[in-house]
Specification:
The complex is a heterodimer of chains A (174) and B (322).
Chain A: H1 15-23, H2 25-32, H3 42-53, E1 62-64, E2 68-70, E3 72-75, E4 79-84, H4 91-107, E5 114-120, E6 125-129, H5 133-151, H6 169-173
Parallel strand pairs in A: 4-5
Antiparallel strand pairs in A: 1-2, 3-4, 5-6
Helix pairs in contact in A: 1-2, 1-4
Chain B: E1 4-8, E2 12-17, E3 20-24, E4 29-33, E5 37-42, E6 46-48, H1 50-59, E7 63-66, E8 72-76, H2 85-96, H3 98-122, H4 129-138, H5 142-161, H6 181-202, H7 222-245, E9 254-257, E10 260-263, H8 265-280, E11 282-284, E12 291-293, H9 294-309
The chains are: A alpha+beta (174), B alpha/beta (322).
Chain lengths: 174, 322
Protein backbone atom coordinates (compact mmCIF):
# COMPACT_ATOMS: atom_id res chain seq x y z
CA UNK A 1 0.00 0.00 0.00
CA UNK A 2 1.44 3.35 -0.99
CA UNK A 3 1.91 5.89 1.72
CA UNK A 4 0.66 9.39 1.40
CA UNK A 5 3.53 11.79 1.59
CA UNK A 6 3.63 13.46 4.94
CA UNK A 7 1.38 10.76 6.37
CA UNK A 8 3.81 7.88 6.62
CA UNK A 9 2.93 5.49 9.37
CA UNK A 10 -0.77 6.20 9.13
CA UNK A 11 -3.09 3.51 7.93
CA UNK A 12 -5.07 3.78 4.75
CA UNK A 13 -8.24 5.79 5.13
CA UNK A 14 -11.33 5.43 2.99
CA UNK A 15 -13.11 8.37 1.45
CA UNK A 16 -16.28 7.62 3.33
CA UNK A 17 -14.39 7.75 6.62
CA UNK A 18 -13.31 11.30 5.84
CA UNK A 19 -16.96 12.10 5.15
CA UNK A 20 -18.19 10.49 8.40
CA UNK A 21 -15.50 12.28 10.42
CA UNK A 22 -17.25 15.56 9.67
CA UNK A 23 -20.72 14.15 10.25
CA UNK A 24 -20.44 11.99 13.35
CA UNK A 25 -17.57 10.37 15.24
CA UNK A 26 -19.74 7.55 16.53
CA UNK A 27 -20.83 6.66 13.01
CA UNK A 28 -17.18 6.81 11.93
CA UNK A 29 -16.24 4.36 14.68
CA UNK A 30 -19.09 1.92 13.98
CA UNK A 31 -18.48 2.00 10.25
CA UNK A 32 -14.74 1.53 10.68
CA UNK A 33 -15.34 -1.50 12.88
CA UNK A 34 -17.61 -3.03 10.25
CA UNK A 35 -20.70 -2.41 12.26
CA UNK A 36 -22.86 -1.46 9.34
CA UNK A 37 -26.58 -1.03 9.20
CA UNK A 38 -27.39 -0.37 5.67
CA UNK A 39 -29.58 -3.33 4.81
CA UNK A 40 -32.92 -1.82 5.66
CA UNK A 41 -32.63 1.92 5.89
CA UNK A 42 -34.91 3.49 3.30
CA UNK A 43 -32.71 6.56 3.13
CA UNK A 44 -29.67 4.47 2.33
CA UNK A 45 -31.63 2.73 -0.42
CA UNK A 46 -32.69 6.11 -1.73
CA UNK A 47 -29.10 7.28 -1.81
CA UNK A 48 -28.00 4.19 -3.68
CA UNK A 49 -30.80 4.64 -6.19
CA UNK A 50 -29.77 8.23 -6.72
CA UNK A 51 -26.25 7.06 -7.50
CA UNK A 52 -27.46 4.43 -9.88
CA UNK A 53 -29.98 6.56 -11.71
CA UNK A 54 -28.17 9.89 -11.98
CA UNK A 55 -25.76 10.54 -14.77
CA UNK A 56 -26.28 7.07 -16.16
CA UNK A 57 -24.80 8.18 -19.47
CA UNK A 58 -21.50 9.00 -17.91
CA UNK A 59 -21.37 6.19 -15.44
CA UNK A 60 -17.70 5.58 -14.91
CA UNK A 61 -17.01 4.83 -11.32
CA UNK A 62 -13.48 5.30 -10.18
CA UNK A 63 -12.35 2.85 -7.55
CA UNK A 64 -8.71 2.91 -6.51
CA UNK A 65 -6.97 0.87 -3.83
CA UNK A 66 -10.37 0.24 -2.21
CA UNK A 67 -10.01 3.69 -0.66
CA UNK A 68 -11.24 5.99 -3.34
CA UNK A 69 -14.68 5.47 -4.82
CA UNK A 70 -15.57 8.53 -6.82
CA UNK A 71 -19.01 8.30 -8.38
CA UNK A 72 -17.82 9.12 -11.86
CA UNK A 73 -14.93 10.62 -13.74
CA UNK A 74 -14.78 12.46 -17.02
CA UNK A 75 -11.67 12.80 -19.08
CA UNK A 76 -11.47 16.17 -20.77
CA UNK A 77 -8.38 18.34 -20.99
CA UNK A 78 -8.11 17.48 -17.33
CA UNK A 79 -9.53 14.65 -15.21
CA UNK A 80 -12.85 15.57 -13.64
CA UNK A 81 -13.69 13.69 -10.45
CA UNK A 82 -17.35 13.78 -9.46
CA UNK A 83 -19.10 12.89 -6.24
CA UNK A 84 -22.90 12.74 -6.31
CA UNK A 85 -24.82 13.77 -3.17
CA UNK A 86 -28.44 14.08 -2.23
CA UNK A 87 -28.41 17.41 -0.43
CA UNK A 88 -25.88 20.05 0.49
CA UNK A 89 -26.55 20.09 4.22
CA UNK A 90 -23.27 18.24 4.81
CA UNK A 91 -21.25 20.29 2.40
CA UNK A 92 -18.09 20.35 4.51
CA UNK A 93 -18.07 16.56 4.76
CA UNK A 94 -18.59 16.18 1.02
CA UNK A 95 -15.95 18.77 0.25
CA UNK A 96 -13.30 17.03 2.34
CA UNK A 97 -14.15 13.65 0.91
CA UNK A 98 -13.42 15.10 -2.51
CA UNK A 99 -10.32 16.94 -1.32
CA UNK A 100 -9.05 13.61 -0.08
CA UNK A 101 -9.71 12.03 -3.49
CA UNK A 102 -7.90 14.81 -5.28
CA UNK A 103 -5.02 14.70 -2.85
CA UNK A 104 -4.70 10.94 -3.14
CA UNK A 105 -4.87 10.95 -6.93
CA UNK A 106 -2.27 13.66 -7.12
CA UNK A 107 0.22 12.58 -4.47
CA UNK A 108 -0.13 8.84 -4.46
CA UNK A 109 -1.09 8.18 -8.06
CA UNK A 110 0.79 11.08 -9.58
CA UNK A 111 -2.11 12.39 -11.62
CA UNK A 112 -1.83 16.07 -12.47
CA UNK A 113 -4.51 18.28 -13.93
CA UNK A 114 -7.41 17.35 -11.69
CA UNK A 115 -10.72 19.01 -11.10
CA UNK A 116 -13.21 18.03 -8.45
CA UNK A 117 -16.97 18.51 -8.44
CA UNK A 118 -19.76 17.76 -6.02
CA UNK A 119 -22.99 17.18 -7.91
CA UNK A 120 -26.37 17.66 -6.34
CA UNK A 121 -28.74 16.38 -9.05
CA UNK A 122 -31.80 16.90 -6.89
CA UNK A 123 -30.83 20.54 -6.39
CA UNK A 124 -29.56 20.94 -9.96
CA UNK A 125 -26.39 22.26 -8.42
CA UNK A 126 -22.68 21.63 -8.92
CA UNK A 127 -19.83 22.84 -6.72
CA UNK A 128 -16.23 22.87 -7.79
CA UNK A 129 -13.60 21.80 -5.26
CA UNK A 130 -9.90 22.37 -5.68
CA UNK A 131 -6.84 21.59 -3.61
CA UNK A 132 -5.24 24.36 -1.60
CA UNK A 133 -2.48 24.25 1.01
CA UNK A 134 -4.73 25.09 3.89
CA UNK A 135 -7.16 22.27 3.15
CA UNK A 136 -4.32 19.80 2.62
CA UNK A 137 -2.92 20.69 6.04
CA UNK A 138 -6.31 20.13 7.61
CA UNK A 139 -6.76 16.90 5.68
CA UNK A 140 -3.56 15.52 7.18
CA UNK A 141 -4.77 16.36 10.67
CA UNK A 142 -8.14 14.79 9.93
CA UNK A 143 -6.50 11.55 8.84
CA UNK A 144 -4.41 11.40 12.01
CA UNK A 145 -7.46 12.15 14.07
CA UNK A 146 -9.51 9.44 12.36
CA UNK A 147 -6.82 6.92 13.19
CA UNK A 148 -6.94 7.92 16.86
CA UNK A 149 -10.72 7.71 17.00
CA UNK A 150 -10.84 4.27 15.43
CA UNK A 151 -8.19 2.85 17.73
CA UNK A 152 -9.92 4.24 20.80
CA UNK A 153 -13.12 3.16 22.51
CA UNK A 154 -16.42 3.88 20.75
CA UNK A 155 -17.24 7.58 21.15
CA UNK A 156 -20.46 8.36 23.01
CA UNK A 157 -23.08 9.57 20.54
CA UNK A 158 -23.90 13.27 20.42
CA UNK A 159 -27.48 14.16 19.73
CA UNK A 160 -27.85 16.17 16.51
CA UNK A 161 -30.79 16.88 14.22
CA UNK A 162 -29.39 14.44 11.65
CA UNK A 163 -29.66 11.56 14.14
CA UNK A 164 -33.33 11.22 13.25
CA UNK A 165 -32.59 10.12 9.72
CA UNK A 166 -29.42 8.14 10.47
CA UNK A 167 -29.37 4.37 9.99
CA UNK A 168 -27.52 4.10 13.32
CA UNK A 169 -30.21 5.95 15.26
CA UNK A 170 -31.42 2.93 17.23
CA UNK A 171 -27.97 1.54 17.87
CA UNK A 172 -26.83 4.89 19.24
CA UNK A 173 -29.81 5.76 21.39
CA UNK A 174 -30.99 2.42 22.74
CA UNK B 1 -42.09 -1.57 8.28
CA UNK B 2 -43.80 -2.73 5.15
CA UNK B 3 -42.34 -6.23 4.99
CA UNK B 4 -44.37 -9.04 6.51
CA UNK B 5 -43.83 -12.52 7.79
CA UNK B 6 -45.44 -15.24 5.71
CA UNK B 7 -46.62 -18.35 7.50
CA UNK B 8 -47.21 -21.29 5.17
CA UNK B 9 -49.28 -23.85 7.01
CA UNK B 10 -50.37 -26.03 4.11
CA UNK B 11 -48.26 -28.29 1.92
CA UNK B 12 -47.18 -26.59 -1.27
CA UNK B 13 -44.61 -25.30 -3.64
CA UNK B 14 -42.70 -22.03 -3.85
CA UNK B 15 -42.02 -20.95 -7.42
CA UNK B 16 -40.24 -17.97 -8.83
CA UNK B 17 -41.35 -16.07 -11.88
CA UNK B 18 -39.07 -13.12 -12.41
CA UNK B 19 -39.10 -11.17 -9.17
CA UNK B 20 -42.27 -12.62 -7.75
CA UNK B 21 -42.52 -15.69 -5.61
CA UNK B 22 -45.68 -17.78 -5.92
CA UNK B 23 -47.00 -20.11 -3.32
CA UNK B 24 -48.94 -22.93 -4.94
CA UNK B 25 -50.97 -25.45 -3.04
CA UNK B 26 -53.74 -27.77 -4.05
CA UNK B 27 -56.36 -25.02 -3.87
CA UNK B 28 -54.68 -21.87 -5.05
CA UNK B 29 -51.77 -19.95 -6.49
CA UNK B 30 -50.85 -16.93 -4.44
CA UNK B 31 -48.30 -14.31 -5.52
CA UNK B 32 -45.96 -12.97 -2.84
CA UNK B 33 -44.12 -9.86 -4.03
CA UNK B 34 -40.53 -10.19 -3.00
CA UNK B 35 -40.24 -6.76 -1.42
CA UNK B 36 -43.17 -7.56 0.87
CA UNK B 37 -41.46 -10.50 2.57
CA UNK B 38 -39.57 -10.16 5.83
CA UNK B 39 -39.22 -13.86 6.52
CA UNK B 40 -41.04 -17.11 5.77
CA UNK B 41 -42.15 -19.73 8.28
CA UNK B 42 -42.85 -23.09 6.66
CA UNK B 43 -45.05 -25.48 8.63
CA UNK B 44 -46.30 -27.70 5.85
CA UNK B 45 -44.25 -29.80 3.46
CA UNK B 46 -42.69 -27.15 1.27
CA UNK B 47 -41.01 -27.69 -2.07
CA UNK B 48 -38.63 -24.92 -2.89
CA UNK B 49 -36.36 -24.38 -5.86
CA UNK B 50 -32.89 -22.93 -5.97
CA UNK B 51 -34.19 -20.07 -8.11
CA UNK B 52 -36.43 -19.07 -5.23
CA UNK B 53 -33.60 -19.44 -2.73
CA UNK B 54 -31.35 -17.29 -4.90
CA UNK B 55 -33.92 -14.57 -4.99
CA UNK B 56 -34.59 -14.79 -1.25
CA UNK B 57 -30.89 -14.71 -0.59
CA UNK B 58 -30.44 -11.62 -2.72
CA UNK B 59 -33.14 -9.89 -0.73
CA UNK B 60 -31.90 -11.13 2.63
CA UNK B 61 -35.01 -13.17 3.44
CA UNK B 62 -34.61 -16.25 5.65
CA UNK B 63 -36.93 -19.27 5.62
CA UNK B 64 -37.57 -21.19 8.83
CA UNK B 65 -38.68 -24.81 8.60
CA UNK B 66 -40.73 -26.71 11.15
CA UNK B 67 -41.71 -30.35 11.17
CA UNK B 68 -45.31 -31.48 11.26
CA UNK B 69 -45.34 -31.21 15.03
CA UNK B 70 -44.34 -27.56 14.86
CA UNK B 71 -40.81 -28.17 16.14
CA UNK B 72 -38.08 -26.10 14.59
CA UNK B 73 -36.00 -28.12 12.15
CA UNK B 74 -33.76 -25.48 10.61
CA UNK B 75 -33.46 -22.32 8.61
CA UNK B 76 -32.36 -21.24 5.23
CA UNK B 77 -29.91 -18.93 6.93
CA UNK B 78 -28.40 -16.56 4.45
CA UNK B 79 -24.84 -15.98 3.61
CA UNK B 80 -23.75 -13.53 6.28
CA UNK B 81 -23.35 -10.03 4.93
CA UNK B 82 -22.99 -8.05 8.11
CA UNK B 83 -19.72 -9.40 9.38
CA UNK B 84 -17.48 -7.74 11.89
CA UNK B 85 -14.36 -9.50 13.12
CA UNK B 86 -14.27 -7.15 16.09
CA UNK B 87 -17.70 -8.14 17.27
CA UNK B 88 -16.99 -11.87 17.00
CA UNK B 89 -13.79 -11.44 18.98
CA UNK B 90 -15.62 -9.47 21.66
CA UNK B 91 -18.40 -12.04 21.76
CA UNK B 92 -15.89 -14.82 22.30
CA UNK B 93 -13.96 -12.80 24.85
CA UNK B 94 -17.14 -12.41 26.89
CA UNK B 95 -17.61 -16.19 26.95
CA UNK B 96 -14.03 -17.06 27.77
CA UNK B 97 -13.84 -14.65 30.68
CA UNK B 98 -16.02 -16.31 33.30
CA UNK B 99 -16.87 -13.11 35.11
CA UNK B 100 -18.06 -11.42 31.95
CA UNK B 101 -19.98 -14.49 30.87
CA UNK B 102 -21.74 -14.73 34.24
CA UNK B 103 -22.73 -11.09 34.09
CA UNK B 104 -24.50 -11.60 30.77
CA UNK B 105 -25.98 -14.98 31.73
CA UNK B 106 -27.42 -13.45 34.89
CA UNK B 107 -28.80 -10.50 32.94
CA UNK B 108 -30.72 -12.83 30.66
CA UNK B 109 -32.18 -14.74 33.59
CA UNK B 110 -32.98 -11.53 35.47
CA UNK B 111 -34.69 -10.11 32.38
CA UNK B 112 -36.70 -13.28 31.87
CA UNK B 113 -37.71 -13.41 35.55
CA UNK B 114 -38.73 -9.75 35.72
CA UNK B 115 -40.86 -10.20 32.62
CA UNK B 116 -42.48 -13.28 34.20
CA UNK B 117 -43.19 -11.14 37.22
CA UNK B 118 -44.89 -8.56 35.00
CA UNK B 119 -47.07 -11.26 33.46
CA UNK B 120 -48.13 -12.54 36.88
CA UNK B 121 -48.64 -8.99 38.12
CA UNK B 122 -50.93 -8.27 35.19
CA UNK B 123 -53.22 -11.08 36.32
CA UNK B 124 -52.91 -10.08 39.96
CA UNK B 125 -51.10 -13.28 40.88
CA UNK B 126 -48.91 -13.66 43.95
CA UNK B 127 -45.44 -14.81 43.28
CA UNK B 128 -42.09 -15.43 44.90
CA UNK B 129 -39.98 -14.48 41.90
CA UNK B 130 -38.18 -11.67 43.70
CA UNK B 131 -37.14 -14.01 46.55
CA UNK B 132 -35.79 -16.66 44.22
CA UNK B 133 -34.17 -14.00 42.08
CA UNK B 134 -32.06 -12.86 45.03
CA UNK B 135 -30.28 -16.23 44.80
CA UNK B 136 -29.15 -15.29 41.33
CA UNK B 137 -26.55 -12.81 42.51
CA UNK B 138 -24.78 -15.38 44.65
CA UNK B 139 -24.70 -17.97 41.87
CA UNK B 140 -21.15 -18.77 40.93
CA UNK B 141 -21.62 -21.01 37.94
CA UNK B 142 -23.76 -21.32 34.85
CA UNK B 143 -25.34 -24.46 36.32
CA UNK B 144 -26.42 -22.54 39.42
CA UNK B 145 -27.78 -19.75 37.25
CA UNK B 146 -29.72 -22.30 35.22
CA UNK B 147 -31.08 -23.84 38.40
CA UNK B 148 -32.35 -20.49 39.64
CA UNK B 149 -34.00 -20.01 36.26
CA UNK B 150 -35.64 -23.43 36.43
CA UNK B 151 -37.01 -22.80 39.95
CA UNK B 152 -38.43 -19.43 38.93
CA UNK B 153 -40.04 -20.89 35.85
CA UNK B 154 -41.59 -23.78 37.71
CA UNK B 155 -43.11 -21.44 40.33
CA UNK B 156 -44.27 -19.21 37.54
CA UNK B 157 -46.09 -22.00 35.74
CA UNK B 158 -47.80 -23.09 38.97
CA UNK B 159 -48.92 -19.51 39.56
CA UNK B 160 -50.32 -19.26 36.03
CA UNK B 161 -52.25 -22.50 36.56
CA UNK B 162 -54.23 -20.59 39.17
CA UNK B 163 -56.03 -18.61 36.48
CA UNK B 164 -56.32 -21.26 33.79
CA UNK B 165 -59.50 -23.32 33.41
CA UNK B 166 -59.36 -27.00 34.05
CA UNK B 167 -58.00 -28.91 31.09
CA UNK B 168 -55.71 -26.05 30.18
CA UNK B 169 -53.50 -26.22 33.25
CA UNK B 170 -49.81 -26.75 32.68
CA UNK B 171 -49.34 -29.09 35.69
CA UNK B 172 -45.73 -29.62 34.75
CA UNK B 173 -43.70 -28.61 31.77
CA UNK B 174 -43.38 -31.41 29.23
CA UNK B 175 -41.65 -31.21 25.88
CA UNK B 176 -40.98 -33.58 23.03
CA UNK B 177 -43.74 -34.47 23.13
CA UNK B 178 -45.82 -31.99 25.08
CA UNK B 179 -48.43 -33.91 27.05
CA UNK B 180 -51.25 -31.42 27.22
CA UNK B 181 -52.73 -28.46 25.41
CA UNK B 182 -50.93 -25.60 27.11
CA UNK B 183 -47.62 -27.42 26.99
CA UNK B 184 -48.23 -27.91 23.29
CA UNK B 185 -48.75 -24.19 22.83
CA UNK B 186 -45.68 -23.30 24.89
CA UNK B 187 -43.49 -25.58 22.77
CA UNK B 188 -44.98 -24.34 19.53
CA UNK B 189 -44.64 -20.71 20.58
CA UNK B 190 -41.10 -21.03 21.87
CA UNK B 191 -39.91 -22.58 18.58
CA UNK B 192 -41.60 -19.80 16.71
CA UNK B 193 -40.02 -17.11 18.85
CA UNK B 194 -36.62 -18.77 18.54
CA UNK B 195 -36.86 -18.51 14.74
CA UNK B 196 -37.93 -14.89 14.96
CA UNK B 197 -34.89 -14.12 17.10
CA UNK B 198 -32.67 -15.86 14.53
CA UNK B 199 -34.02 -13.54 11.84
CA UNK B 200 -33.27 -10.51 13.97
CA UNK B 201 -29.76 -11.71 14.80
CA UNK B 202 -29.11 -12.26 11.13
CA UNK B 203 -29.64 -8.54 10.65
CA UNK B 204 -26.86 -7.68 13.07
CA UNK B 205 -23.14 -8.41 13.32
CA UNK B 206 -23.70 -10.79 16.22
CA UNK B 207 -22.70 -14.37 15.63
CA UNK B 208 -25.74 -16.46 16.61
CA UNK B 209 -23.67 -19.42 17.80
CA UNK B 210 -21.80 -17.63 20.58
CA UNK B 211 -23.97 -17.52 23.68
CA UNK B 212 -23.71 -16.87 27.40
CA UNK B 213 -26.55 -18.44 29.37
CA UNK B 214 -26.90 -21.47 27.15
CA UNK B 215 -23.74 -23.36 26.33
CA UNK B 216 -22.53 -22.41 22.88
CA UNK B 217 -22.85 -26.08 21.97
CA UNK B 218 -26.46 -26.36 23.17
CA UNK B 219 -27.94 -25.75 19.77
CA UNK B 220 -26.66 -24.25 16.61
CA UNK B 221 -28.03 -20.78 17.23
CA UNK B 222 -27.64 -20.72 20.98
CA UNK B 223 -27.52 -16.94 21.22
CA UNK B 224 -31.10 -16.98 19.91
CA UNK B 225 -31.95 -19.21 22.89
CA UNK B 226 -30.44 -16.65 25.27
CA UNK B 227 -32.41 -13.76 23.85
CA UNK B 228 -35.61 -15.80 23.54
CA UNK B 229 -35.69 -16.23 27.32
CA UNK B 230 -36.30 -12.53 27.77
CA UNK B 231 -39.17 -12.39 25.33
CA UNK B 232 -40.97 -15.65 26.08
CA UNK B 233 -43.09 -14.22 28.93
CA UNK B 234 -43.93 -10.98 27.13
CA UNK B 235 -44.73 -12.40 23.72
CA UNK B 236 -45.55 -16.11 24.02
CA UNK B 237 -46.87 -16.65 27.54
CA UNK B 238 -49.14 -13.62 27.59
CA UNK B 239 -50.49 -14.63 24.23
CA UNK B 240 -51.23 -18.19 25.35
CA UNK B 241 -53.00 -17.05 28.51
CA UNK B 242 -55.06 -14.62 26.49
CA UNK B 243 -55.99 -17.20 23.84
CA UNK B 244 -57.19 -19.55 26.57
CA UNK B 245 -59.01 -16.99 28.67
CA UNK B 246 -60.80 -15.50 25.69
CA UNK B 247 -61.69 -19.01 24.58
CA UNK B 248 -60.15 -18.20 21.23
CA UNK B 249 -58.39 -21.54 21.32
CA UNK B 250 -60.43 -24.62 22.14
CA UNK B 251 -60.02 -28.31 22.73
CA UNK B 252 -60.91 -28.88 19.06
CA UNK B 253 -57.78 -27.00 18.00
CA UNK B 254 -55.56 -29.81 19.24
CA UNK B 255 -54.65 -33.29 18.15
CA UNK B 256 -54.81 -35.49 21.20
CA UNK B 257 -52.83 -38.70 21.11
CA UNK B 258 -51.40 -41.14 23.59
CA UNK B 259 -49.37 -39.07 26.05
CA UNK B 260 -48.96 -36.33 23.54
CA UNK B 261 -50.84 -33.29 22.45
CA UNK B 262 -50.20 -30.97 19.53
CA UNK B 263 -51.88 -28.06 17.81
CA UNK B 264 -53.76 -29.19 14.73
CA UNK B 265 -54.06 -27.16 11.52
CA UNK B 266 -56.78 -24.85 12.75
CA UNK B 267 -54.94 -24.43 16.05
CA UNK B 268 -51.69 -23.57 14.30
CA UNK B 269 -53.42 -21.07 12.06
CA UNK B 270 -55.04 -19.31 15.01
CA UNK B 271 -51.81 -19.31 16.94
CA UNK B 272 -49.75 -17.95 14.03
CA UNK B 273 -52.27 -15.23 13.20
CA UNK B 274 -52.26 -14.04 16.78
CA UNK B 275 -48.48 -14.27 17.03
CA UNK B 276 -48.08 -12.16 13.93
CA UNK B 277 -50.53 -9.60 15.21
CA UNK B 278 -48.57 -9.34 18.44
CA UNK B 279 -45.20 -9.02 16.73
CA UNK B 280 -46.58 -6.07 14.83
CA UNK B 281 -48.07 -4.37 17.87
CA UNK B 282 -46.22 -1.21 18.77
CA UNK B 283 -45.29 0.52 21.97
CA UNK B 284 -43.77 3.92 22.47
CA UNK B 285 -40.14 3.37 23.34
CA UNK B 286 -38.99 5.54 26.19
CA UNK B 287 -35.34 5.92 25.25
CA UNK B 288 -35.87 6.24 21.53
CA UNK B 289 -39.01 8.34 21.70
CA UNK B 290 -40.37 6.33 18.79
CA UNK B 291 -42.99 3.69 18.35
CA UNK B 292 -41.42 0.28 17.97
CA UNK B 293 -43.00 -3.10 17.29
CA UNK B 294 -42.53 -6.10 19.54
CA UNK B 295 -40.46 -7.62 16.77
CA UNK B 296 -38.24 -4.56 16.76
CA UNK B 297 -37.74 -4.87 20.51
CA UNK B 298 -35.87 -8.09 19.78
CA UNK B 299 -33.55 -6.32 17.37
CA UNK B 300 -32.98 -3.56 19.89
CA UNK B 301 -31.95 -6.19 22.42
CA UNK B 302 -29.29 -7.35 19.96
CA UNK B 303 -28.10 -3.76 19.56
CA UNK B 304 -27.85 -3.40 23.34
CA UNK B 305 -25.74 -6.52 23.44
CA UNK B 306 -23.43 -5.11 20.76
CA UNK B 307 -23.00 -1.94 22.79
CA UNK B 308 -22.18 -3.96 25.87
CA UNK B 309 -19.61 -6.04 23.99
CA UNK B 310 -17.79 -3.03 22.57
CA UNK B 311 -17.82 -1.37 25.98
CA UNK B 312 -20.13 1.48 25.07
CA UNK B 313 -23.02 0.83 27.43
CA UNK B 314 -23.66 -1.85 30.00
CA UNK B 315 -26.36 -4.30 28.98
CA UNK B 316 -29.65 -4.08 30.86
CA UNK B 317 -32.23 -6.63 29.74
CA UNK B 318 -35.54 -5.56 28.32
CA UNK B 319 -38.24 -5.56 30.98
CA UNK B 320 -41.77 -4.75 29.95
CA UNK B 321 -42.51 -1.21 31.13
CA UNK B 322 -46.21 -1.15 30.38
Amino acid sequence: MSMISGLEGNPAVRGLQINYYFICRTKLWFFSHNIQMERESELVKLGRLLHEESYSREKKELIIDDLIAADFVKRKDCLEVHEVKKSNTMEEAHRFQLIYYLFYLKHVKGIENLKGFIDYPALKKRTEVSLNDEDVEELKNVIKDIDGIIRGPPPAPQRKPICRSCAYFELCWI
Amino acid sequence: MTRKNYYLTTDGLLKRKENTVYFLNKDSKRPIPINKIYSIYAYGALSISSQVLNLLSREGIPVHFFNRYGFYTGSFYLRETLLSGDIIIKQAEHVLDNERRMELAKSFVRGAALNMKRVLGYYGLENGISDTLSDLESSGSITEVMNVEARIRSDYYSAIDGILPEGFRIERRTRRPPENMTNAMISFGNSLLYSTVITELYNTQLNPTISYLHEPFARRYSLALDLSEIFKPTIIDRMIISLIKKRAIKVEDFEHGMNQCLLNDSGKRKFLAEYDRRLGKTVKHRELGRKVSYRRLIRLEAYKLIKHLIGQKRYEPFVMWW
